[in-house]
Structures are given as structure tokens and as C-alpha cells.
Write a structure and sequence with these properties.
This protein is mainly alpha-helical. The chain has 13 helices and four strands. The protein is extended, with a radius of gyration of 25 Å. The chain binds zinc ion.
């Protein structure tokens, strides 16, 4: 790069133009690859619960960029012309991202034509025209406690929503670090929650004389966490004595098995890919029978592991076939 210091003006301009062209070419290529990997859900085999997790963890993309690219790649899968436009520099990634939710089979030819060489501001005006009924306010998202592990913390993506198996807004995206171990939490709550917060402040006014809502929220979270953990991992102080084996097989998994599996796997998906990398997502974890229940697999700690929902479905599809599982989901 030091040689750039001595390069002539013409050379610099020419070479930058080349680099920009290559960048467009590569962006189009990247979206095509991402779209196909996403469509086939190949990230699952590689221990990632979502395309979003693969992009951020394996490829080091920021949450916002990953979200934008995933959304654009999905739009490009539906309307391949988008890739050609990006390649030619007629449409930028942010524009595709913005337009994605407004393109239909009927309107895409015309809308894409009109979006050619437009700035973001102009594209926003175009969208307001084609979808006037759409609320253009930033999407308000509800608090989703996903532990920020790159599962449904779907969108730190600048107030947009990406559909499909990508994370809903993660706690990371809702909190702003203020100082070590102090955060500001941004959430939108309903009337009922607001009333509850006020009532709790009053009821706790002896304990919390300055009426600090943050302390009320902290206490409420601690209570909910303890209760949820108790239910989820069946964490009871004294495990009940194991009941005698009944002759009849049942789908109900005994609490002590639940508890042991949950503790052993640390509450996280234990799917391991070919390279020995573990998924580790804590989002929507479920119990997975290594030898399926329907194939006489026992409800034992040895036979059961935790899986995120994406990997549980993935393995069920490997075991029973994609068509069979799709049918079962539909009938459910
Ligand atoms: Zn997983």
C-alpha cells in the first residue's frame, strides 16, 4: 500500500474504479452463494443453527451486514435480475435490502427498473409510492431473550425484520453498555406491563424507596429466570426417587433425565459437526433422542442430548426424510 503514495493521480483513479467493479462482482457472487446455502440450509451441517449465525460467527460479518446480505440474498433468489443489477452497479446492497419486502412477481420488473441508480432516499420515496399502506415507522420489536448467541436474535439489523430461521432481536441488540456491568435496556412494552411495573413500584416502595424501576425489573427478571429454570430443567432440590419401570412405553421423559441432560449439556445445543465444532445455541433447545423414540430409543441420559430446534429438525429429516417431516409439520 506504501506504493500508493507514489502513484500518479490517473493511476489511482483507474485502479480504484477497477477495485469498485471487482467489489460489485464479488458482492453479487457472495449473495448468490449465500442464497443457495441458505435455501439448502447447509449451515446446519456445519454446526450453525441459522444462516445468520454462520455469517456472523464463521465469516465475521457484523450483525447489521449479515442481516442485510441475508435479506438481499433471499430477494435475489426470488428475482435473479437483482444480481445482474448489483454486478453492473445499478443497484446497491442497501437498496436491495430496503426493497426486498416490497417486491412481488407482478411488480418486480417495473420496481427494479425504477430503482436503477437511485439513492437510498429516492428508493424510500419509491417504496412509499408502491406500498403506501405499509407503516414506514421503524419496526418495534418485542423483548426476546435469546442470550445473543446468534440464533433467533434475527435482527440487530437496523429496525428491519428478516424472515426465516434467523435470530429475533437479541438481548445484545437491546442493551447499550454504559460502564462495566451496567447497561441501558431498550424495550417496548404493552399497557399491561406498564401497569404492572407501576403497581410493583408502589408495592415495593418500602424496599425501594426511590422507586427505581430498574431495580423492579431486575427483581422481576431474577424471579422469572429462577422459575423458568425450575420448569425447564426440572431443577428440584430433592429429586424424586426414580419411579419403577412401568411396562408401558410412554413419550413422557422423566424429570431426572431432563435435569441430567440439561446439566450435562449446559443448556445448549450439543450438535457437533464433522470438524468437531459444537453448535452451542441456547435458543429453543429441545430434547433429542440419538436413537429415535419411534425406533425403540430409550428415555435415558445416554440416549438423549439437547438440540436447538433447527438442529433437532435437521437430524429428524436425516433420519426420517425431508418429505416425511414436512408432512408431519403440516399435519401438526
Ligand atoms: Zn444447534
Amino acid at each position: 500500500m506504501a506504493s500508493l503514495r507514489r502513484a500518479k493521480k490517473r493511476q489511482l483513479l483507474r485502479e480504484l474504479s477497477q477495485v469498485v467493479n471487482e467489489d460489485r462482482e464479488n458482492t453479487a457472487k457472495m449473495l448468490a452463494y449465500m442464497g443457495e446455502i441458505d435455501r439448502r440450509r447447509l449451515y446446519l451441517e456445519d454446526s450453525y443453527p441459522s444462516m445468520f449465525a454462520m455469517c456472523t460467527k464463521q465469516f465475521g460479518m457484523s450483525e447489521a451486514i449479515a442481516g442485510k446480505r441475508i435479506r438481499a440474498s433471499r430477494a435475489a433468489c426470488r428475482f435473479p435480475r437483482i444480481l445482474e443489477m448489483i454486478r453492473r452497479g445499478e443497484l446497491h446492497l442497501s437498496g436491495v435490502h430496503q426493497l426486498a419486502g416490497h417486491l412481488t412477481q407482478e411488480n418486480h420488473e417495473e420496481v427494479l427498473q425504477r430503482a436503477k441508480h437511485r439513492s437510498m432516499r429516492e428508493i424510500e420515496v419509491l417504496i412509499a409510492e408502491i406500498s403506501p399502506q405499509v407503516d414506514r415507522e421503524p419496526v418495534l420489536r418485542e423483548l426476546v431473550m435469546d442470550g445473543g448467541d446468534g440464533t433467533p436474535g434475527e435482527d440487530g439489523f437496523e429496525g428491519t425484520v428478516v424472515s426465516g430461521p434467523v435470530p429475533a432481536s437479541s438481548v445484545k441488540n437491546l442493551t447499550i453498555p454504559l460502564s462495566p456491568r451496567r447497561y441501558r435496556l431498550h424495550v417496548t412494552i404493552g399497557q399491561q406491563a406498564k401497569d404492572a411495573l407501576e403497581e410493583l413500584r408502589d408495592l415495593l416502595s418500602h424496599q425501594i424507596p426511590d422507586g427505581d424501576s430498574a431495580i423492579v425489573v431486575e427483581k422481576a427478571l431474577a424471579l422469572l429466570l429462577a422459575e423458568t429454570k425450575k420448569r425447564r430443567s426440572a431443577t428440584v432440590k430433592k429429586p424424586r426417587a426414580k419411579t419403577k419401570k412401568s411396562a408401558k412405553r410412554t413419550r413422557v421423559i422423566p424429570a431426572h433425565v431432563w435435569r441430567s441432560v440439561f446439566e450435562r449439556d449446559g443448556g445448549r445445543c450439543a450438535f457437533i459437526d464433522e470438524n468437531g465444532r459444537r453448535c452451542g445455541s441456547a435458543w429453543q433447545v429441545e430434547l433429542h433422542h440419538c436413537v429415535p423414540y419411534s425406533r425403540e430409543g430409550p428415555h435415558s441420559v445416554e440416549n438423549i442430548q439437547l438440540r436447538c430446534r433447527a438442529h433437532n429438525q435437521f437430524e429428524a429429516e436425516l433420519e426420517f426424510g425431508e418429505a416425511f417431516m414436512a408432512e408431519r409439520r403440516q399435519s401438526a
